[in-house]
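Training component of the fellowship. As part of building independent skills, the fellow (R.M.) carried out the full modelling exercise for a liganded target. The chosen ligand was glutamine. The inputs are recorded below so that the supervisory panel can assess the work.
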Amino acid sequence: MAGNPRVGVLALQGDVREHIALLSRLGADAVRVRRPDELRAVDGLVIPGGESSVIDKLSRSFGLQGPIRAAIAAGMPMLGTCAGLIMLADTVVDAIDGQESFGGLDVVVRRNAFGRQAESFEAELEVAGFGGDPVSAAFIRGPVVESVGPAATPLAALDDGRVVAVEQGTLLGLSFHPEISGETRFHQRFLDAVEQWRHHLAA
Ligand code: GLN
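Fellow's submitted model of the complex:
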């Protein structure tokens, strides 16, 4: 299909710039999404790391919660990192009062699961389907996937077995931040799904 894939990064709060930079490096036309009409103009959405309770509140006040849920239901590819994984989870444990997610991933995630002592750490991960070197993953007050329902597939786990990457159809959720460690394979996988989605829409 002609032209670069046009993808959005939800730009309400969080590490938006890092995702835009990485997606641009991979040849995508990456734009910030803050309004429903900006969402309609893209073929995939990245939900960045940041603070999920803030992203939730702002997405509701900017009128984006409904359109993002509809896009997920329609099959639009999305990649959520850290707070973005929380936003894509069907169930969130240790959320603040009244906190909502977009949902889509059949998982239970626990916010801030790694506690204070280990607010930040790096780990090497083997990821299902990735050849080459293990992923060097940066965890920054990230969530953990406490349970994976039948519709979702775990992609990576820590040595102790805790799941930190999941996939379900065109949705990809990560507890960590590939956009910070310079890991490109998850964003490439997302862009491949976007390319397929564009073909599907054009068919
Ligand atoms: N603790 C944050 C939250 O609950 C996530 C941290 C991050 O995205 N780096 O949303």
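The panel noted the following from the submitted structure. The chain has a mean pLDDT of 95. DSSP finds seven helices and twelve strands in the chain.
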